[in-house]
Every structure is written in C-alpha cells, then in structure tokens.
Amino acid sequence: MMRWSGIKGALASGVCAAAVAVGGFGVAAAQEALTEETYGPTMSEIRLIVGDAELHTDARYWPELGEDLDKLFPMFRQIEAFWGERGNDDAVAKTLTTIEALREIGQAGIAMDQGSARSGIRALRATCQSCHDVHREETADGYRIKPGS
Q1: Which residues of 56-90 are buried (b: 16+ CB within 10 A; e: fewer)?
Q2: Architecture of domain 4-145
Q3: Can you say how many angstroms the Cα of residue 85 is from the centroid of all Cα atoms in its chain?
Q4: For residues 112 and 137, what is the distance between their CA atoms, to the nearest angstrom?
Q5: What SS3 class is residue 31?
Q6: 3-state secondary structure 98-123
Q7: CA-to-CA distance for 120 and 17, rounded, in angstroms?
Q8: pTM above 0.90, yes or no
Q9: Cα 74–82–123 angle (5° rounding)?
Q10: What averages of pLDDT result for each successive group of 10 residues across the chain (149 residues)?
Q11: Residues 143 and 137: beta-carbon distance below 8 Å
C-alpha cells in the first residue's frame, strides 16, 4: 500500500510535470489578448498567485504549487505576446527570463526541492521587479505602463 507521502509525491510530480510541459508551448493563444486596460489587473492577479506559490513552496504543498504554475505559465505567455505586439524587445526578454524561472520552480516542484523552488521564486520576483522599474510608473491611481514602453 502506498503511503500518503508517496501519493502526494506522485501527484506533485504529475502536476508539476504538466506545468513545466505546458510552459514550453503557446498556451496563451487560446486566451484573450491583453490590452493596456487588462494588463494591470492581470499583473495584480499574478502577484497574488506568485504569493500563493511561495506559500505552497514553504509548506511543501507540491501539487498546489503545480496548480499555481498552471495558472502562471499562460498568463506570462499573454504578457510576452503583449510586449511583442508593442515591439518592446526588452520587456519580451524579461518575460522570457521569467518563464525560465517558472520552469525552474516547476522542476524543483517535481524534485520536491524546496531550496531550488525558493531560488526560482526569488529569480522570478527579481526579473519582474527589473521590468517594473523600467516599464511602469506610479500615478495617483496606481501604476501604469510608461509612455513609449
């Protein structure tokens, strides 16, 4: 009989493997394209999901981490398409770096390696912040994409 930890590990491996595999394909094609109006709310949702991923990593909830990645991969593909349509190569490159961090987190989830998953989350956050520093600005109503970005 398989113990709960064995079942949990099998689930984590399956869910995270699916997330890593999905991240390599253009999943966002089936989703609605982002506009400047929907970009901000999408970023807010991403911030919340990344927070969940961090909590799930800290708690070693590997299947839930896989679910977080299942949400994040297609959202970042939408962001990649958004910046690509604007011709902003810097933002596209930063988005691709973020997608690589998601893959790192997914691989760590498969291996149930908390240290590597945390490292991937730190890399993800650092890349996100570097993009925000260059391509967004604070206004009285929150944040917006900088003119010309």
Answers
A1: bbeeebbbbbbbbbbbbbbbbbbbbbbbeeeebee
A2: Up-down Bundle (1.20)
A3: 20
A4: 37
A5: coil
A6: HHHHHHHHHHHHHHCCHHHHHHHHHH
A7: 16
A8: no
A9: 60
A10: 44 50 43 89 96 98 97 97 97 97 97 97 97 94 90
A11: yes
